[in-house]
Amino acid sequence: MNALKQQRISVLGATGSIGGSTLDVVARHPDRFEVFALTANSRIDELENLCVRHAPRYAVVQGGEDAANLSVRLGRRGLTTEVMHGVSGLIEVAAHSDVDVVMAAIVGAAGLLPTLAAARAGKRVLLANKEALVLSGSLFMDVVRDSGATLLPIDSEHNAIFQSLPAGYGRDPEAAGVRRILLTASGGPFRLTPLEQLHGVTPEQACAHPNWVMGRKISVDSATMMNKGLEVIEAHWLFNAPAERIDVVVHPQSVIHSMVEYVDGSVIAQLGNPDMRTPIANALAYPDRVEAGVGPLDLFRIGRLDFEAPDLVRFPCLRLAYECLREGGAAGAVLNASNEEAVAAFLDRRLRYTDIPAIIECALERASDMSVESIDAVLDTDARSRAIARSEIDKRLYQ
Ligand code: NAD
Ligand code: MG
């Protein structure tokens, strides 16, 4: 066998849940991967420890003071890691000519510019940051096409779909004989909670996901099923599938990560334990397969697989996401921005859980003259939608 060329990787959002799982897989394969850069928002103690373990060439944090502080600390520990800060630092490590692979695992719209920079630079982009794609889908996919970047999905559902589509899928469902994409959803922690109790649920309850351990924002999105809504839009952009060809199937065991149904009636699924190291390892090594640290699937212990249709009364966020996908234009960007603001307010105990969809609906109604045709337009739409959402949140402050 030929010697492998070691791939240099920048992990954006290294201190997060996906960042941690990525570094776990990377550390299992020092022959294949070398950590080039690690980034974090503000948790510099954690980033310091990760730098000691992985000795990256660069580290990036949000603020200048944190950067100076981290730089002194790393120097004391004998590291030559150079510390940068702000969006310009993120963009630099995402697009650096010595980088091969970029893990885009910053949460929310904050990840947009560095992820786009990686795509523009033609990198292998491992996309966890679905919000970036929901915000700027058409523009983002144009950049990927024009630069020749390789975009590989990390979201477990989209990675499952990617694995269930024919190799070399040309982003044409019709030509590939695809009838439907079946996105599975666990239904989250409130699938069976009596509806009249939902207005009183706490951030802790919302973040206690039955099957996955994840960051707080995506955990709340899973509870409202906005996560699945964002994923429907993500699937649309990644696989060029219209809303009519994307169905959501609630599957509480989270063993089937998603499925593709073909015109001949075949349904191809990808199964596995709910552990993000599987999709991460798949995308890191693609088209090879590497050990991810994930144990074998014990079907006898699981015993049964259940399926049900999503309840759009219980989960209005899923309905709103489908409506935005059908509407097109800037609707997805307004949906994403207002959701980020509403979720942050809920996590801060400034907003009730049941007001999250109400805020988004108001933002969608009030948004006018929004565009996503250029990156400046996307950023402007994002900022204006957040301002609208914040003014609606202020009207409903948690009593
Ligand atoms: P997390 O909250 O655990 O981590 C977020 C990371 O982003 C942290 O490293 C944080 O420092 C960084 N960050 C946050 N705000 C930032 C900012 N303004 N500037 C720079 N960096 C910033 O989140 P997570 O659960 O790891 O999710 C990351 C992304 O992956 C999200 O887009 C999420 O939807 C997606 N995703 C996560 C999972 C999962 O299992 N956790 C599964 C599928 C998709
Ligand atoms: Mg997912």
TrEMBL record:
EC numbers for this chain: 1.1.1.267
Q: Which residues bind NADPH?
A: 15-18, 129, 131, 215
Q: Where is each 1-deoxy-D-xylulose 5-phosphate reductoisomerase N-terminal domain found?
A: 9-137
Reactions it catalyzes: 2-C-methyl-D-erythritol 4-phosphate + NADP(+) = 1-deoxy-D-xylulose 5-phosphate + NADPH + H(+)
* Keywords, alphabetical: Isoprene biosynthesis, Magnesium, Manganese, Metal-binding, NADP, Oxidoreductase
Quick one: a GO biological-process term for this protein? isopentenyl diphosphate biosynthetic process, methylerythritol 4-phosphate pathway involved in terpenoid biosynthetic process
Provide the binding site for Mn(2+): 155, 157, 231
Q: Where is the DXP reductoisomerase C-terminal domain?
A: 271-387
Q: Does the keyword NADP apply?
A: yes
Q: Which residue ranges does the record assign to the 1-deoxy-D-xylulose 5-phosphate reductoisomerase C-terminal domain?
A: 151-239
GO function terms (MF aspect): 1-deoxy-D-xylulose-5-phosphate reductoisomerase activity; manganese ion binding; NADPH binding
So which cofactors does this thing need? Answer: Mg(2+); Mn(2+)
Q: What class of enzyme is it?
A: oxidoreductase
The pathway where this protein functions is: Isoprenoid biosynthesis; isopentenyl diphosphate biosynthesis via DXP pathway; isopentenyl diphosphate from 1-deoxy-D-xylulose 5-phosphate: step 1/6
A Pfam family annotated for this chain is DXP_reductoisom
Q: Which residues bind 1-deoxy-D-xylulose 5-phosphate?
A: 130, 156-157, 186, 209, 222, 227-228, 231
The record's function comment reads: Catalyzes the NADPH-dependent rearrangement and reduction of 1-deoxy-D-xylulose-5-phosphate (DXP) to 2-C-methyl-D-erythritol 4-phosphate (MEP).
Concerning its family, UniProt says: Belongs to the DXR family.
Spell out the protein name for this chain.
1-deoxy-D-xylulose 5-phosphate reductoisomerase
Annotated source species: Azoarcus taiwanensis
Give the organism's phylogenetic lineage.
Answer: Bacteria, Pseudomonadati, Pseudomonadota, Betaproteobacteria, Rhodocyclales
Q: Which gene encodes it?
A: dxr
